[in-house]
Protein backbone atom coordinates (compact mmCIF):
# COMPACT_ATOMS: atom_id res chain seq x y z
CA UNK A 1 0.00 0.00 0.00
CA UNK A 2 1.49 3.33 -1.08
CA UNK A 3 1.07 6.36 1.15
CA UNK A 4 -0.71 9.48 -0.02
CA UNK A 5 1.91 12.23 -0.11
CA UNK A 6 1.26 15.84 0.86
CA UNK A 7 3.66 18.63 -0.04
CA UNK A 8 3.87 20.23 3.39
CA UNK A 9 5.31 23.69 3.99
CA UNK A 10 8.74 22.90 2.57
CA UNK A 11 12.19 23.09 4.13
CA UNK A 12 12.00 26.85 4.73
CA UNK A 13 8.29 27.04 5.42
CA UNK A 14 6.43 27.79 8.64
CA UNK A 15 2.84 26.69 9.20
CA UNK A 16 0.23 28.57 11.18
CA UNK A 17 0.41 27.71 14.90
CA UNK A 18 -1.67 24.63 15.76
CA UNK A 19 -2.76 24.13 12.14
CA UNK A 20 -1.76 20.45 11.89
CA UNK A 21 -4.11 19.35 14.65
CA UNK A 22 -1.27 17.26 16.11
CA UNK A 23 -0.28 17.62 19.77
CA UNK A 24 3.12 16.44 21.01
CA UNK A 25 4.62 16.18 24.48
CA UNK A 26 8.37 16.80 24.51
CA UNK A 27 10.35 15.45 27.46
CA UNK A 28 13.52 17.39 28.18
CA UNK A 29 14.59 20.96 27.45
CA UNK A 30 18.19 20.55 26.34
CA UNK A 31 19.39 20.98 22.76
CA UNK A 32 17.22 18.18 21.40
CA UNK A 33 14.14 19.17 23.37
CA UNK A 34 14.31 22.88 22.55
CA UNK A 35 14.99 22.20 18.87
CA UNK A 36 12.14 19.67 18.72
CA UNK A 37 9.71 22.10 20.32
CA UNK A 38 10.67 24.91 17.94
CA UNK A 39 10.62 22.75 14.81
CA UNK A 40 7.28 21.17 15.75
CA UNK A 41 5.83 24.62 16.43
CA UNK A 42 7.06 25.74 13.01
CA UNK A 43 5.23 22.86 11.34
CA UNK A 44 1.93 23.69 13.01
CA UNK A 45 1.95 21.20 15.89
CA UNK A 46 0.80 22.01 19.42
CA UNK A 47 3.72 21.51 21.82
CA UNK A 48 4.02 21.00 25.57
CA UNK A 49 7.50 20.58 27.09
CA UNK A 50 8.46 19.01 30.42
CA UNK A 51 11.84 19.59 32.09
CA UNK A 52 12.90 17.93 35.33
CA UNK A 53 15.12 20.80 36.49
CA UNK A 54 13.90 23.99 38.11
CA UNK A 55 15.47 26.21 35.45
CA UNK A 56 17.06 26.03 32.03
CA UNK A 57 20.69 26.23 33.08
CA UNK A 58 23.92 27.37 31.57
CA UNK A 59 26.06 24.47 32.77
CA UNK A 60 28.75 22.87 30.65
CA UNK A 61 31.95 23.72 28.87
CA UNK A 62 32.65 23.70 25.14
CA UNK A 63 30.28 22.12 22.66
CA UNK A 64 30.17 22.06 18.88
CA UNK A 65 27.24 22.03 16.48
CA UNK A 66 28.43 21.39 12.96
CA UNK A 67 26.90 22.78 9.80
CA UNK A 68 24.41 19.94 9.38
CA UNK A 69 22.86 21.02 12.68
CA UNK A 70 23.08 24.78 12.17
CA UNK A 71 21.12 24.76 8.91
CA UNK A 72 17.73 24.49 10.67
CA UNK A 73 18.80 26.93 13.41
CA UNK A 74 19.86 29.47 10.78
CA UNK A 75 16.20 29.94 9.82
CA UNK A 76 14.91 30.59 13.32
CA UNK A 77 13.55 34.04 14.03
CA UNK A 78 14.42 35.19 10.52
CA UNK A 79 18.15 34.66 11.13
CA UNK A 80 18.34 36.40 14.50
CA UNK A 81 19.23 33.25 16.46
CA UNK A 82 22.07 32.59 14.02
CA UNK A 83 23.41 36.11 14.49
CA UNK A 84 23.33 35.85 18.29
CA UNK A 85 24.95 32.41 18.23
CA UNK A 86 27.73 33.67 15.97
CA UNK A 87 28.47 36.49 18.41
CA UNK A 88 28.99 34.17 21.40
CA UNK A 89 30.83 31.38 19.60
CA UNK A 90 34.49 30.75 18.92
CA UNK A 91 36.22 31.56 15.65
CA UNK A 92 38.62 28.66 15.31
CA UNK A 93 40.37 28.27 11.98
CA UNK A 94 42.59 25.25 12.60
CA UNK A 95 42.89 22.31 14.99
CA UNK A 96 46.51 21.60 15.89
CA UNK A 97 47.46 18.11 17.04
CA UNK A 98 50.75 17.48 18.89
CA UNK A 99 52.65 14.69 20.56
CA UNK A 100 52.65 14.73 24.35
CA UNK A 101 56.02 16.52 24.19
CA UNK A 102 54.62 19.31 22.03
CA UNK A 103 55.80 18.30 18.56
CA UNK A 104 53.26 19.54 16.01
CA UNK A 105 52.00 16.63 13.93
CA UNK A 106 49.04 18.08 12.07
CA UNK A 107 47.19 21.34 11.60
CA UNK A 108 43.87 20.84 9.89
CA UNK A 109 40.98 23.24 9.16
CA UNK A 110 37.96 23.40 11.46
CA UNK A 111 35.61 23.32 8.47
CA UNK A 112 32.02 22.65 9.40
CA UNK A 113 32.47 23.77 13.02
CA UNK A 114 34.18 27.13 12.59
CA UNK A 115 32.63 30.56 12.40
CA UNK A 116 30.55 30.90 9.25
CA UNK A 117 29.39 27.30 9.05
CA UNK A 118 29.04 25.81 12.53
CA UNK A 119 28.93 26.83 16.19
CA UNK A 120 31.59 26.00 18.74
CA UNK A 121 31.06 27.65 22.08
CA UNK A 122 30.12 27.24 25.70
CA UNK A 123 27.27 24.77 26.04
CA UNK A 124 25.26 26.97 28.39
CA UNK A 125 25.59 30.07 26.22
CA UNK A 126 24.38 28.23 23.12
CA UNK A 127 21.51 26.55 24.95
CA UNK A 128 20.27 29.84 26.41
CA UNK A 129 20.55 31.47 22.98
CA UNK A 130 18.19 28.83 21.61
CA UNK A 131 15.94 28.99 24.68
CA UNK A 132 15.44 32.73 24.21
CA UNK A 133 13.71 32.04 20.90
CA UNK A 134 11.76 29.17 22.47
CA UNK A 135 10.39 31.66 25.00
CA UNK A 136 9.57 34.16 22.28
CA UNK A 137 7.29 31.55 20.69
CA UNK A 138 5.52 31.15 24.05
CA UNK A 139 5.71 27.36 23.91
CA UNK A 140 4.20 25.77 27.00
CA UNK A 141 6.91 24.66 29.44
CA UNK A 142 6.64 22.86 32.79
CA UNK A 143 9.69 22.87 35.05
CA UNK A 144 10.30 20.53 38.01
CA UNK A 145 8.55 17.89 35.90
CA UNK A 146 10.45 14.62 36.16
CA UNK A 147 8.69 12.21 33.80
CA UNK A 148 8.80 8.57 34.89
CA UNK A 149 5.45 7.15 33.78
CA UNK A 150 4.14 6.71 30.24
CA UNK A 151 0.93 5.35 28.78
CA UNK A 152 -0.17 4.61 25.26
CA UNK A 153 -3.21 3.47 23.30
CA UNK A 154 -3.82 2.97 19.59
CA UNK A 155 -5.02 6.58 19.38
CA UNK A 156 -2.90 8.54 21.86
CA UNK A 157 0.10 8.59 24.17
CA UNK A 158 0.93 10.47 27.29
CA UNK A 159 2.78 10.86 30.56
CA UNK A 160 1.97 11.27 34.21
CA UNK A 161 3.76 14.20 35.84
CA UNK A 162 3.36 15.05 39.51
CA UNK A 163 0.20 12.91 39.59
CA UNK A 164 -1.31 14.77 36.63
CA UNK A 165 -2.17 12.93 33.41
CA UNK A 166 -1.13 14.55 30.11
CA UNK A 167 -2.31 13.11 26.80
CA UNK A 168 -1.33 13.88 23.20
CA UNK A 169 -0.84 12.29 19.79
CA UNK A 170 2.84 11.54 20.43
CA UNK A 171 5.50 11.68 23.14
CA UNK A 172 9.03 12.66 22.11
CA UNK A 173 11.70 11.80 24.70
CA UNK A 174 14.66 14.16 24.42
CA UNK A 175 15.82 13.90 28.03
CA UNK A 176 19.18 12.22 27.59
CA UNK A 177 20.79 8.89 28.32
CA UNK A 178 18.95 8.47 31.63
CA UNK A 179 15.54 8.93 30.04
CA UNK A 180 12.80 6.81 31.56
CA UNK A 181 11.54 6.59 28.00
CA UNK A 182 14.34 4.16 27.19
CA UNK A 183 12.92 1.62 29.62
CA UNK A 184 9.40 2.20 28.31
CA UNK A 185 10.36 1.81 24.64
CA UNK A 186 12.64 -1.19 25.13
CA UNK A 187 10.49 -2.90 27.74
CA UNK A 188 13.53 -3.52 29.90
CA UNK A 189 16.38 -1.77 31.66
CA UNK A 190 19.33 -1.25 29.33
CA UNK A 191 22.51 -1.02 31.35
CA UNK A 192 25.40 1.10 30.11
CA UNK A 193 28.86 -0.38 29.90
CA UNK A 194 32.03 1.36 31.02
CA UNK A 195 34.13 2.75 28.20
CA UNK A 196 37.28 2.46 30.30
CA UNK A 197 37.78 6.21 30.18
CA UNK A 198 36.83 9.34 32.07
CA UNK A 199 37.36 12.97 31.19
CA UNK A 200 38.49 15.96 33.24
CA UNK A 201 36.69 19.08 32.03
CA UNK A 202 37.23 22.77 32.80
CA UNK A 203 36.00 26.14 31.52
CA UNK A 204 36.99 29.48 33.07
CA UNK A 205 37.80 33.13 32.47
CA UNK A 206 41.48 33.67 33.38
CA UNK A 207 42.84 36.54 35.42
CA UNK A 208 44.31 39.48 33.43
CA UNK A 209 47.74 38.64 34.86
CA UNK A 210 47.73 35.43 32.82
CA UNK A 211 49.81 36.90 30.01
CA UNK A 212 52.31 38.46 32.42
CA UNK A 213 53.40 34.96 33.42
CA UNK A 214 56.07 33.73 30.97
CA UNK A 215 54.69 30.20 31.29
CA UNK A 216 51.27 31.23 29.95
CA UNK A 217 52.18 34.29 27.86
CA UNK A 218 51.80 32.16 24.71
CA UNK A 219 48.01 32.31 25.08
CA UNK A 220 46.69 34.80 22.47
CA UNK A 221 45.45 38.22 23.47
CA UNK A 222 41.66 38.83 23.66
CA UNK A 223 39.97 39.79 20.43
CA UNK A 224 41.89 37.61 18.03
CA UNK A 225 41.38 34.19 16.52
CA UNK A 226 40.69 31.43 19.02
CA UNK A 227 43.19 28.61 19.41
CA UNK A 228 42.55 24.87 19.81
CA UNK A 229 45.35 22.38 20.47
CA UNK A 230 45.32 18.64 21.05
CA UNK A 231 48.13 16.66 22.70
CA UNK A 232 48.15 12.86 22.46
CA UNK A 233 50.07 10.29 24.44
CA UNK A 234 49.75 6.66 25.56
CA UNK A 235 46.12 6.02 26.51
CA UNK A 236 45.57 9.74 27.13
CA UNK A 237 44.81 12.88 25.16
CA UNK A 238 44.14 16.46 26.21
CA UNK A 239 42.63 19.39 24.33
CA UNK A 240 43.25 22.99 25.33
CA UNK A 241 41.41 25.85 23.67
CA UNK A 242 40.66 29.52 24.05
CA UNK A 243 37.03 30.56 23.70
CA UNK A 244 35.00 33.65 22.87
CA UNK A 245 37.83 35.48 21.08
CA UNK A 246 40.48 34.41 23.62
CA UNK A 247 38.59 35.74 26.64
CA UNK A 248 38.12 32.28 28.19
CA UNK A 249 39.90 28.95 28.39
CA UNK A 250 38.58 25.43 28.26
CA UNK A 251 40.39 22.11 28.50
CA UNK A 252 39.55 18.44 28.62
CA UNK A 253 41.72 15.46 29.51
CA UNK A 254 40.61 11.98 28.50
CA UNK A 255 42.26 9.42 30.77
CA UNK A 256 41.83 5.82 31.95
CA UNK A 257 38.88 5.51 34.32
CA UNK A 258 40.57 4.67 37.64
CA UNK A 259 38.12 6.12 40.16
CA UNK A 260 34.65 5.11 41.22
CA UNK A 261 32.98 8.31 40.10
CA UNK A 262 29.37 8.67 39.05
CA UNK A 263 28.16 9.42 35.54
CA UNK A 264 27.70 13.11 36.21
CA UNK A 265 28.81 16.32 34.50
CA UNK A 266 29.34 18.03 37.88
CA UNK A 267 31.49 15.57 39.86
CA UNK A 268 34.31 17.67 41.41
CA UNK A 269 37.88 16.75 40.50
CA UNK A 270 41.27 17.32 42.09
CA UNK A 271 43.83 19.31 40.15
CA UNK A 272 46.72 17.18 41.43
CA UNK A 273 45.13 14.09 39.87
CA UNK A 274 44.96 15.76 36.46
CA UNK A 275 48.54 17.00 36.75
CA UNK A 276 49.80 13.48 37.46
CA UNK A 277 48.30 12.26 34.18
CA UNK A 278 50.31 14.78 32.12
CA UNK A 279 53.52 14.65 34.13
CA UNK A 280 56.47 14.98 31.76
CA UNK A 281 54.31 16.34 28.92
CA UNK A 282 54.65 19.70 27.15
CA UNK A 283 54.93 22.20 30.07
CA UNK A 284 52.30 24.48 28.50
CA UNK A 285 49.66 21.93 29.49
CA UNK A 286 50.38 21.90 33.23
CA UNK A 287 50.63 25.69 33.35
CA UNK A 288 47.09 26.03 31.97
CA UNK A 289 45.83 23.37 34.36
CA UNK A 290 47.37 25.19 37.32
CA UNK A 291 45.45 28.42 36.72
CA UNK A 292 42.11 26.58 36.66
CA UNK A 293 39.79 27.65 39.51
CA UNK A 294 39.16 24.60 41.74
CA UNK A 295 35.38 24.94 41.45
CA UNK A 296 35.57 24.80 37.65
CA UNK A 297 37.21 21.37 37.35
CA UNK A 298 35.11 18.22 37.00
CA UNK A 299 35.72 14.54 36.31
CA UNK A 300 33.12 12.88 34.10
CA UNK A 301 32.92 9.12 33.60
CA UNK A 302 32.45 8.23 29.93
CA UNK A 303 29.83 5.52 29.73
CA UNK A 304 29.10 3.88 26.41
CA UNK A 305 25.66 2.71 25.35
CA UNK A 306 25.36 0.34 22.44
CA UNK A 307 23.05 1.39 19.58
CA UNK A 308 19.48 0.57 20.58
CA UNK A 309 17.48 -2.00 18.62
CA UNK A 310 14.68 0.55 18.23
CA UNK A 311 13.79 4.13 19.14
CA UNK A 312 10.01 3.71 18.83
CA UNK A 313 7.52 2.07 21.19
CA UNK A 314 5.45 -0.94 20.13
CA UNK A 315 2.34 1.15 19.44
CA UNK A 316 4.38 3.76 17.61
CA UNK A 317 3.46 6.86 19.58
CA UNK A 318 6.51 7.27 21.86
CA UNK A 319 9.92 7.93 20.34
CA UNK A 320 13.42 8.52 21.68
CA UNK A 321 15.61 11.19 20.07
CA UNK A 322 19.01 12.76 20.73
CA UNK A 323 21.09 11.18 23.48
CA UNK A 324 18.06 9.25 24.70
CA UNK A 325 18.19 7.32 21.41
CA UNK A 326 21.83 7.49 20.31
CA UNK A 327 24.41 8.80 22.77
CA UNK A 328 27.81 9.87 21.49
CA UNK A 329 31.23 9.88 23.12
CA UNK A 330 32.84 13.36 23.24
CA UNK A 331 35.27 12.63 20.38
CA UNK A 332 32.34 12.28 17.98
CA UNK A 333 31.62 16.03 18.20
CA UNK A 334 28.12 15.21 16.91
CA UNK A 335 25.85 14.74 19.95
CA UNK A 336 24.03 18.07 19.88
CA UNK A 337 24.11 18.22 16.09
CA UNK A 338 22.36 14.91 15.64
CA UNK A 339 19.75 15.92 18.22
CA UNK A 340 18.95 18.97 16.07
CA UNK A 341 18.77 16.77 12.96
CA UNK A 342 16.34 14.51 14.84
CA UNK A 343 14.22 17.51 15.80
CA UNK A 344 13.97 18.88 12.28
CA UNK A 345 13.13 15.44 10.91
CA UNK A 346 10.44 14.42 13.41
CA UNK A 347 8.56 17.69 12.94
CA UNK A 348 8.43 17.16 9.17
CA UNK A 349 7.49 13.48 9.46
CA UNK A 350 4.48 14.43 11.60
CA UNK A 351 3.54 17.19 9.16
CA UNK A 352 3.62 14.90 6.13
CA UNK A 353 2.03 11.82 7.71
CA UNK A 354 -0.74 13.82 9.38
CA UNK A 355 -2.72 13.31 12.55
CA UNK A 356 -4.24 10.01 11.40
CA UNK A 357 -0.83 8.40 10.82
CA UNK A 358 1.32 9.49 13.77
CA UNK A 359 2.84 6.01 14.33
CA UNK A 360 3.90 5.97 10.68
CA UNK A 361 5.58 9.35 11.15
CA UNK A 362 7.63 8.16 14.11
CA UNK A 363 8.64 4.89 12.49
CA UNK A 364 9.57 6.67 9.28
CA UNK A 365 11.77 9.09 11.21
CA UNK A 366 13.61 6.13 12.76
CA UNK A 367 13.89 4.40 9.38
CA UNK A 368 15.37 7.53 7.84
CA UNK A 369 17.92 8.29 10.57
CA UNK A 370 18.90 5.10 12.36
CA UNK A 371 21.89 4.07 10.22
CA UNK A 372 23.22 7.63 9.97
CA UNK A 373 23.29 8.00 13.76
CA UNK A 374 24.76 4.54 14.28
CA UNK A 375 27.68 5.27 11.95
CA UNK A 376 28.29 8.57 13.76
CA UNK A 377 28.36 6.80 17.12
CA UNK A 378 30.94 4.28 15.96
CA UNK A 379 33.01 6.99 14.26
CA UNK A 380 33.38 8.80 17.59
CA UNK A 381 34.76 5.63 19.18
CA UNK A 382 37.21 5.28 16.30
CA UNK A 383 38.51 8.82 16.80
CA UNK A 384 38.95 8.28 20.53
CA UNK A 385 40.94 5.11 19.92
CA UNK A 386 43.11 6.81 17.29
CA UNK A 387 44.01 9.49 19.84
CA UNK A 388 44.63 7.24 22.85
CA UNK A 389 45.87 4.07 21.13
CA UNK A 390 47.92 5.77 18.46
CA UNK A 391 49.74 3.72 15.84
CA UNK A 392 52.80 5.96 15.76
CA UNK A 393 54.46 4.22 12.86
CA UNK A 394 51.39 4.80 10.70
CA UNK A 395 50.99 8.40 11.94
CA UNK A 396 54.61 9.25 11.08
CA UNK A 397 53.91 8.13 7.53
CA UNK A 398 50.52 9.86 7.33
CA UNK A 399 49.71 12.44 10.05
CA UNK A 400 46.31 12.97 8.41
CA UNK A 401 45.19 9.80 10.21
CA UNK A 402 44.89 11.94 13.36
CA UNK A 403 42.45 14.42 11.82
CA UNK A 404 38.97 14.80 13.23
CA UNK A 405 36.75 13.46 10.41
CA UNK A 406 35.15 16.14 8.24
CA UNK A 407 33.23 13.96 5.74
CA UNK A 408 30.98 15.60 3.20
CA UNK A 409 28.25 12.97 3.74
CA UNK A 410 27.99 14.08 7.37
CA UNK A 411 28.53 17.84 7.37
CA UNK A 412 27.05 18.84 4.02
CA UNK A 413 23.68 17.32 4.86
CA UNK A 414 20.46 19.31 4.94
CA UNK A 415 18.16 17.32 7.26
CA UNK A 416 15.04 19.29 6.34
CA UNK A 417 15.42 19.02 2.58
CA UNK A 418 16.27 15.34 2.97
CA UNK A 419 13.18 14.69 5.09
CA UNK A 420 10.87 16.10 2.43
CA UNK A 421 12.68 14.29 -0.38
CA UNK A 422 12.76 10.89 1.34
CA UNK A 423 9.46 10.75 3.21
CA UNK A 424 7.49 8.85 0.60
CA UNK A 425 10.21 6.25 0.02
CA UNK A 426 10.95 5.69 3.71
CA UNK A 427 7.27 5.65 4.71
CA UNK A 428 6.44 3.08 2.05
CA UNK A 429 9.31 0.96 3.35
CA UNK A 430 7.70 1.04 6.80
CA UNK A 431 4.28 0.14 5.37
CA UNK A 432 5.43 -2.66 3.08
CA UNK A 433 8.41 -4.02 5.00
CA UNK A 434 10.65 -3.62 1.98
CA UNK A 435 14.27 -2.59 2.44
CA UNK A 436 15.08 1.11 2.72
CA UNK A 437 18.47 2.38 1.55
CA UNK A 438 19.21 5.74 3.17
CA UNK A 439 21.06 8.40 1.20
CA UNK A 440 22.35 10.26 4.27
CA UNK A 441 25.17 7.81 4.96
CA UNK A 442 28.51 7.22 3.19
CA UNK A 443 28.39 5.39 -0.10
CA UNK A 444 29.37 1.74 0.06
CA UNK A 445 33.12 1.40 -0.30
CA UNK A 446 33.81 5.07 0.47
CA UNK A 447 35.89 6.41 3.36
CA UNK A 448 33.39 7.31 6.08
CA UNK A 449 36.16 9.29 7.87
CA UNK A 450 37.08 11.47 4.91
CA UNK A 451 37.98 15.14 5.25
CA UNK A 452 36.35 16.12 1.96
CA UNK A 453 33.84 18.65 3.30
CA UNK A 454 33.99 22.13 1.78
CA UNK A 455 31.95 24.83 3.46
CA UNK A 456 31.85 27.55 0.80
CA UNK A 457 28.18 26.99 -0.08
CA UNK A 458 26.70 27.26 3.39
CA UNK A 459 29.56 29.22 4.92
CA UNK A 460 28.78 32.25 2.78
CA UNK A 461 25.11 31.93 3.65
CA UNK A 462 25.87 31.97 7.37
CA UNK A 463 28.28 34.87 7.20
CA UNK A 464 25.90 37.14 5.35
CA UNK A 465 22.83 36.37 7.55
CA UNK A 466 20.41 37.88 5.00
CA UNK A 467 16.69 38.33 5.38
CA UNK A 468 15.47 34.94 4.16
CA UNK A 469 11.82 35.83 4.42
CA UNK A 470 10.90 33.39 7.20
CA UNK A 471 8.32 34.92 9.50
CA UNK A 472 6.53 33.61 12.57
Describe the structure.
A 7-stranded mixed beta sheet has the order 5-4-13-14-15-12-16, covered by helices on one side. The radius of gyration is 22 Å and the shape is globular. It is of the alpha/beta class and 472 residues long. Strand 13 and strand 14 (236-243) form a beta hairpin. The chain has helices spanning 31-42, 67-74, 80-88, 123-136, 180-186, 271-277, 283-290, 335-353, 358-388, 392-397, 408-411, 415-432, 456-464, and strands spanning 23-27, 46-50, 62-65, 94-99, 104-109, 119-122, 140-142, 149-152, 157-161, 164-168, 170-173, 193-204, 228-233, 236-243, 248-256, 297-304, 318-320. The chain folds into 2 domains: 23-91 and 111-191 and 306-464, 3-Layer(bba) Sandwich (FAD/NAD(P)-binding domain), CATH 3.50.50.60; 193-304, D-Amino Acid Oxidase, Chain A, domain 2 (2-Layer Sandwich), CATH 3.30.9.
Main beta sheet strand tally, sense and closure: 7 strands, mixed
What is the number of helices? 13
> Percent helix among the residues?
25-40%
> What is the annotated CATH architecture of the largest domain?
3-Layer(bba) Sandwich
Q: Which class best fits the helix and strand makeup?
A: alpha/beta
Radius of gyration: 22 Å
Give the low-confidence spans.
Answer: 458-472
Oligomeric state as shown: single chain
What would you say about this model in short?
The protein has 472 residues and is α/β, with parallel strands linked by helices. The chain has helices at 31-42, 67-74, 80-88, 123-136, 180-186, 271-277, 283-290, 335-353, 358-388, 392-397, 408-411, 415-432, 456-464, and strands at residues 23-27, 46-50, 62-65, 94-99, 104-109, 119-122, 140-142, 149-152, 157-161, 164-168, 170-173, 193-204, 228-233, 236-243, 248-256, 297-304, 318-320.
Amino acid sequence: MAIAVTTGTGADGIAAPGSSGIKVLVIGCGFGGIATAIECYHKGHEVVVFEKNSEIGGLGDTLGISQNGTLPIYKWDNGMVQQKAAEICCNYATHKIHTSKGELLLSHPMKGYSAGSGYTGRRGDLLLCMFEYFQKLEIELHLNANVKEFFETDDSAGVIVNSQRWEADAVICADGVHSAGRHYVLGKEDLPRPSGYAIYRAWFVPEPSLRENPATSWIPLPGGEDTVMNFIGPNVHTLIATVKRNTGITWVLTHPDEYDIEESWTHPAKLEDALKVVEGWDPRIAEVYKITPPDQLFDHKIIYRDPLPTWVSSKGRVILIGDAAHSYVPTSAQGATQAVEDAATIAIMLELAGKSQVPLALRTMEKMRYERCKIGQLMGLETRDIWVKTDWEAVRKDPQLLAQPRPNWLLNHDPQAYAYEEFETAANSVLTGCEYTPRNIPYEGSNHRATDFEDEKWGNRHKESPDIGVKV
